[in-house]
Amino acid sequence: MLSHLQTTLPEINGEVDWKKWLYESEGPLPWDPSSYCATELEDQVKALADVWMVHGGHTATHEDMVGWHSLQTMALLDELFNRVTDALQGRPRKPTDPHNVVNH
């Protein structure tokens, strides 16, 4: 596994102590793998979640998800579930950046 990560992500080999991260860590280390990933699909999910959570879903339509991957639909359901759970437990979240929100 270690050699796979070093080969697949050579640009971060100097930034990540792979052995510590994989074998010695009791929790997440201060390296964010999402900073190396494109977020366009996730941004679409969070923007539509904002339409539902911030605006009550009044302007949402099935067309908002046309062309989505099935994993985006699953991610939307997860995002909505997590936001509702956080709200019920008194942990409100900030909506996504307004420039990412679907125009509704």
Description:
The chain has 104 residues and is mostly helical. It is 45% helix and 0% strand. It contains 4 helices and no strands. Helix 3 packs across helix 4. The radius of gyration is 18 Å and the shape is elongated. It starts with a helix and ends in a 16-residue tail after the last helix. The C terminus is likely disordered.
Tags for this entry?
0% strand; single chain; mainly alpha; 4 helices; 104 residues
At a glance:
This protein has 104 residues and is an all-alpha fold. The chain contains four helices and no strands.
Q: What is the arithmetic mean of pLDDT?
A: 79
Q: Major β-sheet, in short? A: none
Terminal CA distance reads: 45 Å
Instruction: Give a count of the beta strands, DSSP E runs of length 2 or more.
Output: 0
Shape designation: elongated
Could you give the order of the helices and strands? HHHH
- Which percent range describes the beta-strand content? under 5%
Output the structural class: mainly alpha
Indicate the radius of gyration in whole angstroms.
18 Å
Poorly predicted runs = 97-104
State the helicity in percent bands. Answer: 40-55%
Number of H- or I-type helical stretches: 4
